[in-house]
Structure formats: structure tokens, C-alpha cells
Amino acid sequence: MEEALLRLEALRSDALKGRDPTVCGETLEVLFRLAKGTERILEIGAAECLTSIGMHLVSGAAVTAIERDGERAKRARENIAAFRLEKDVRLIEGDAAEVLPCLEGPFDLIFLDGPKAQYRRYFSECKRLLGRGGVLVSDDVLLYGWVKGEPPKKRKMLAEHIREYLAMLEADPDLETEILEIGEGLAVSKKTGA
Ligand SMILES: C[S@@+](CC[C@H](N)C(=O)[O-])C[C@H]1O[C@@H](n2cnc3c(N)ncnc32)[C@H](O)[C@@H]1O
Q1: Nearest residue CA, atom 1 of ligand 1?
Q2: How many folded domains does the chain comprise?
Q3: Domain coverage including residue 169
Q4: Cβ neighbours of residue 61 under 8 Å, at least 6 residues apart?
Q5: How far apart are CA 161 and CA 32, in angstroms?
Q6: For a substitution probing ligand 1, which of 8, 12, 16, 20 has the most ligand atoms within 8 Å of its CB?
């Protein structure tokens, strides 16, 4: 596994230079900690599946990954094949809004890292798919300080979407949510209720 994680790190450093980059090291550490001991993981907005592959490597969990962009999905399939993980990491190419209602839970860990303006829309499906005791991790919930502070004019709508999403998480009686100030902000929500 050590060797596979080193290979993955090399791919991650290339991906970190791209547009819509892969998660930063601190976020990955949190995900790896939460992934350990899980059996089923879902990643929404998986790009090249580097984070999905990593979460599988540290946990042995079966991972389902959703990615809409055709080019990224192609590279994701190549990465999955290069690590010989076709049986363990399942990539679904498609729009998360259409794919999520077709999935069956429960998942122990859901990593939400797709389009930020759609988080509210995905929320009820994420909650349905999350098992009791499971954890929903939502990335970029503080987005360059725009969510707590004053966003540039063009980003006001996006910041408002995320504020409303955070309010939904925090008001939900079935979730216990903690906001970590790492990367662009990570919401970690444990499902304690039904
Ligand atoms: C920040 S990147 C994801 C990085 C990835 N989670 C990782 O850690 O390597 C966001 C991804 O969401 C994908 N995406 C955007 N809209 C989507 C949608 N409606 N359904 C599924 N994926 C979508 C983008 O193509 C992009 O690859």
C-alpha cells in the first residue's frame, strides 16, 4: 500500500496545478482518518478519482465516484485501471443530480466536492444515502473567505448558496456539524439521527 500511496502522491502533485484541483493534503488527511474502518464510500465530483483511489487504499472500502466531465472521467478510468482497482472503485460518469436518486445506501462516508451552487440540491439525497453514524464531508464551504466575509460582486450568489447550505447542515436535527478551517473550509457532519 505504501508504494501505491507514493504513486498516488505523484499524480496528486500534477493535479494540484490544474483547474478544479484535487483536495489539499490537510483535507486528504481528514478524509483518510474518516475513511478508516468504513465499508462504503461515495464521492460526488470525483475529477480524476485520485481522492477516491486514496480513500480506498487506506480503508479497503468499496468506493462509488460520480464525475460529469467526460475528459476527467476518462482520466479517472485510466487511473483506476493503473492501480488495478476496477472492482473497488466504481466510476459513474454523469450529472450528480441524476445519478444520486439512482443509488442505494447506506454509505459510511460521503465526500461532497461537486458544483458548490448545487450542494443544497444534493443535500436530501446525501442524507438519504448516509447510514446512521455515517459522515458527510462537504468541501469548500468557506471559499476564499467569501462565505463569512464580503464576496466580490460576481461571487455574491455563490457565497449565498453556500451560506444557505451551511445553515441547512447546522439546523438539521439528525446531523452534528463541525466546520474545519482547512483548505477552503470543510464541513464534517455526522449523522446521529434517522
Ligand atoms: C473540485 S473538483 C473535484 C476534485 C476531486 N474531488 C478530488 O479530490 O480530486 C470538482 C469536480 O466536480 C465535477 N462536477 C461539476 N459539476 C458536476 C455535476 N453536476 N455532477 C458531477 N460532477 C460534477 C467537475 O467536473 C470537477 O471535476
Answers
A1: 20
A2: 1
A3: 2-191
A4: 35, 38, 39, 40, 41, 55, 108, 109
A5: 28
A6: 20
**Nearest-angstrom CA–CA distance, 128 and 107:** 9
CA distance 28 to 25: 5
| Ligand 1 atom at minimum distance from 96 CA | 20
Determine whether the shortest distance from the Cβ of 51 to ligand 1 is under 6 A: yes
With contact defined as beta carbons under 8 Å apart, do 58 and 87 qualify?
Answer: no
Q: Is 95 in the pocket of ligand 1 (CB under 6 A)?
A: yes
DSSP 144: G
Amino acid letter, residue 94 = G
CATH code where residue 29 lies:
3.40.50.150
Q: Which of 44, 66, 63, 45 is nearest to 53 (CA)?
A: 63
Task: Give the closest residue (by CA) to ligand 1 atom 2.
Answer: 20
Cell of 165: 447550505
| One pLDDT digit (tens) per residue for the chain, 194 residues | 789 999 999 999 988 887 778 999 999 999 999 999 999 999 999 999 999 999 999 999 999 999 999 999 999 999 999 999 999 999 999 999 999 999 999 999 999 999 999 999 999 999 999 999 999 999 999 987 777 778 778 888 899 999 999 999 999 999 999 999 999 999 999 999 87
115 Cβ closer than 6 Å to some ligand 1 atom = yes
Q: Which atom of ligand 1 is nearest to the CA of 23?
A: 8
